[in-house]
Design goal:
about 325 residues; Arc Repressor Mutant, subunit A; SH3 type barrels; 4 domains; 5-stranded antiparallel beta sheet; 4-stranded antiparallel beta sheet; about 25% strand
């Protein structure tokens, strides 16, 4: 008999997929969850009984949430509410973009239920400490992008890259808003590059709506793209990366799951061979550097050479080793 924990975990994952990747088909959901079509519809019924209902929108080829039950917030003191508001900022640091974005919406509801004088103060604090200082974005930018995503509305961004002197004009079909690696991003089709791109919200200086309503590309799969990411950079294809860790670093690597594709193998000399398949190998190299001399990039060859170059630059900064 299926355990309650296993079923609950599957239902939570299903809600997350429906809300964060609505353009997945039923067949893709079945494959992702490893369940039968019959089980999918049983889970759909179970969620409806809990207050969460969704349907397939054939014209737009996507799922639509038709009911997400509201439960009134009761018996929370003022200090408890404010503590939860500040916890949103910390939650984003976990890298869980689905939970963090839902927490952001929950925080706004907590604010809305406060008494009027405190509501205005809390809203100001939330915008300043959580949105502006926590994620570096402005409230109006986030709200406009949220509307554009829900309406399938093309937008024009004034986007300030760190290396550019002036903001660049980017025409974008925004597909998803998400948290990753302590930052807020929007991902969608970039008309200038003619490809899927992500844009960091704190770099958006201005946003304007266009009258154009877009249709999401049929082969776009948010869940699959970020399943291949080691941290932030997503993609359809992957490349194998191998890192060797020293014996004293090995326990720290073994005790955590760093990526769903990882395999670890203890070597006879006490070192650990760590292997992953990711869309951007450099993210693994940057992560390996945090372990200092306890990590060595082995594959691919081009990444090893790049790592050697970076280590050489570091040696130059710190001076000759005596």
């Amino acid at each position: 008999m299926e355990s309650r924990l296993k079923k609950s975990h599957r239902l939570i994952r299903l809600i997350s997929d429906i809300k964060s990747a609505p353009y997945l088909t039923v067949a893709q959901l079945l494959a992702s969850h490893g369940i039968s079509r019959a089980q999918f519809y049983k889970d759909k019924t179970a969620l409806a009984e809990l207050g969460f209902e969704f349907t397939w929108d054939r014209p737009h080829r996507r799922f639509r949430v038709t009911r997400d039950a509201y439960f009134p917030i009761e018996n929370l003191s003022l200090s408890e509410r404010l503590s939860l508001l500040m916890a949103v900022r910390q939650l984003s640091a976990t890298g869980d973009y689905i939970l963090s974005f839902e927490a952001l919406n929950a925080a706004r509801k907590l604010i809305a239920d406060l008494p009027k004088p405190m509501r205005e103060t809390a809203a100001s604090l939330f915008e300043d400490l959580v949105l502006r200082k926590g994620f570096g974005c402005r409230k109006e930018i986030l709200e406009k992008l949220s509307n554009a995503v829900s309406e399938n509305r093309r937008v024009i961004l004034a986007y300030q890259k760190p290396s550019a002197k002036q903001p660049q004009r980017e025409e974008v079909d925004p597909y998803h808003l998400f948290f990753q690696d302590r930052s807020l991003y929007v991902e969608g089709y970039a008309c200038r590059q003619k490809d899927i791109r992500m844009f960091r919200l704190n770099r958006i200086q201005d946003i304007a709506f266009t009258p154009i309503q877009f249709t999401v590309q049929e082969d776009y799969n948010f869940g699959q793209r970020y399943r291949n990411a080691f941290s932030v950079f997503a993609g359809k294809t992957t490349e194998k990366v191998v890192v060797r860790f020293s014996p004293h670093i090995r326990p720290y690597i073994e005790e955590s799951l760093w990526h769903h594709s990882q395999t670890t193998t203890r070597q006879d000399d006490g070192t650990l061979r760590f292997e992953v398949h990711v869309s951007e190998p450099r993210e693994v190299m940057w992560w390996a550097f945090r372990w200092g001399a306890g990590a060595e990039v082995l594959e691919p060859a081009w990444l090893r050479e790049e790592a050697k170059g970076e280590v050489g630059k570091m040696a130059g900064i710190y001076g000759a080793i005596r």
